[in-house]
Amino acid sequence: MIPRLFWLSVTGAVAATLFYVSRFWDFRLWSRDGLFGIETLRPQGGLLARWLRGTELAPFELILWVIGVFLVLTWLQRIHDALRSRR
After folding, report:
1. Using alpha carbons only, what angle is made at residue 25 by residues 14 and 5, rounded to the nearest 5 degrees?
2. Contact status, residue 34 vs residue 43, Cβ threshold 8 Å
3. Tens digit of each residue's pLDDT (9 = 90 or more) over 19-74
4. What pTM, to 2 d.p., does this model score?
5. What CA–CA distance (Å, rounded) separates 74 from 18?
6. What is the C-alpha to C-alpha distance for residues 23 and 66, in angstroms, rounded to an integer?
7. Tell me, what's the pLDDT at 87?
8. What number of CA atoms fall less than 13 Å from residue 63's CA on the CB side?
9. Helix axes 61-85, 2-21, angle to 10 degrees
10. In angstroms, how far is CA 69 from the centroid of its own chain?
């Protein structure tokens, strides 16, 4: 039961982080100064659009986000499977 709760919390944290990086984050949970005073972690999310601004990849932000989410979640699944097979 504890390993299942651990992996659920890890997956939830990763999903929240990926959601924050996307353009779909609409929550303003901290001040305009940024999270922990870090200006680049602004409250309205959308970090990927900000990182790609001024590049040729900016129009493909959503496609890049989807590919990144797929790769990160696949990597997380492989780690889970590798650690589970050791038992």
Report:
1. 25
2. yes
3. 888 888 877 777 777 777 777 777 777 888 888 899 999 999 999 999 999 999 99
4. 0.78
5. 13
6. 11
7. 65
8. 4
9. 170
10. 7
The confidence score (pLDDT) of residue 67 equals 95
Give long-range contacts, CB 8 A cutoff, 24+ apart: 25-30: none
Please report, as a single letter, which amino acid is at residue 21: V
The rounded distance, in Å, linking the Cα atoms of 82 and 87 is 10
Cα gap 62→85, rounded to integer Å: 34
More confident residue, 32 or 80: 80
> Cα separation of 36 and 39, whole Å?
9
Residue reference for tokens 């492989």: 78
Please give the Cα distance from 12 to 6 (Å, whole number). 10
Pairwise CA distance, residues 85 & 13, whole Å: 23
Q: What confidence tier does 75 reach under pLDDT thresholds 50, 70, 90?
A: very high
